[in-house]
Target: Integral membrane HRF1 family protein
Amino acid sequence: MTSFWNPFYGASSGLIRGGLGAYGEKILGSSSEYVQSNISRYFSDPQYYFQVNDHYVRNKLKVVLFPFLHRGHWTRITEPVGGRLSYKPPIYDINAPDLYIPLMAFGTYVVLAGFSLGLQGK
Model:
């Protein structure tokens, strides 16, 4: 192709590349700073995500599998702790994120896949 069809060719190509590069660096830089500053907030207490009981698991599976039957609210419940708002753990709030159900689903998949491969002789 000729340089006529290339938008990044010519006198302004350095300006365009430099501007796009700076803009991309600004976006990626700010997002990585955001992730770094908030990662400790979300993963500082992993026990929070495993505070579940049988009743919670049963209700959460109903909400995940049949969301059109959910009659409650879809927002999380907050409580004041130390002068700021904090979210209640999963055992008290059906809308709270948990890691118990995904971890058990993965464990079940591994066991069933191993059982299936064992039956096939692989």
